[in-house]
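Reader question, answered in our methods column.
A reader sent in the components of a multi-part assembly and asked whether the whole thing could be modeled at once rather than chain by chain. We filled in our standard form and ran it. Here is what they sent:
COMPLEX SIZE: two components
ENTRIES:
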Amino acid sequence: MRAKALLAVLLIGIILFWAIEDMPAFGDPQAPATQYTGELYINSVLPDIGIENIVTAILASYRGFDTLGETVVIFTAGISVALLLRRGGQL
Amino acid sequence: MRENVVIRTVSRLAVPFIQVFALYVIVHGASGAGGGFQGGVVFASSFILMTIAFGLSSVKKRFNNKWIMICSIIGITIYAGIGLLCLILGGNYLEYGIIEATLGIPHLHGYLLDAVEVGIGITVMAVMTSIIYDMAERRGESP
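And here is the structure of the entire assembly that came back:
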């Protein structure tokens, strides 16, 4: 069983190292990940919203509904922990 | 808990600076690295430090479970209320540009983002502190 697991790990590792060659270089402007929406956000955040931080602009304005959901998830997690650990004490 | 002068003095000095830094991180979200989630966690870490140094019961005197629940609800209400304000002024939900266009105040969009970050920060701070309180109580006695 250990030999099989070792074989699987080695095989997957070799495949992953093989795939590294096709990765774009770090910070490459021609990489596919920086080609489409990144350019759009960099050009349109300042005229649209007027703040410098692109990450906050995407987080709170373009994806505002998503962030509201995240906040509700955190709130729900807190409520759940209180319900599980406090066991009917006073809130 | 054993009395330890060094721990208590250092944390008494450190807690205000941690809280000021947390407020800086929250408010600085629109113009640099920062945001509500990070700042809220940093603020909660000051309460964790106080719990470790002074014990759970003395921290709970300043910030008890009732106020934690009120704070976490206030944070979400700020966020959802700003979204609802956009709806009232005739836009879509969370369409901040409508508020800026209707009220005619320049740079209001960025300030609304700051208000949203403050709401997120209040909720995250309260929830993290609540989890720490519950886990510290789980040990049996309050130290």
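What stands out: Chain B has a mean pLDDT of 87. Chain B is about 80% helix and 0% strand.
Send us your own complexes using the same form.
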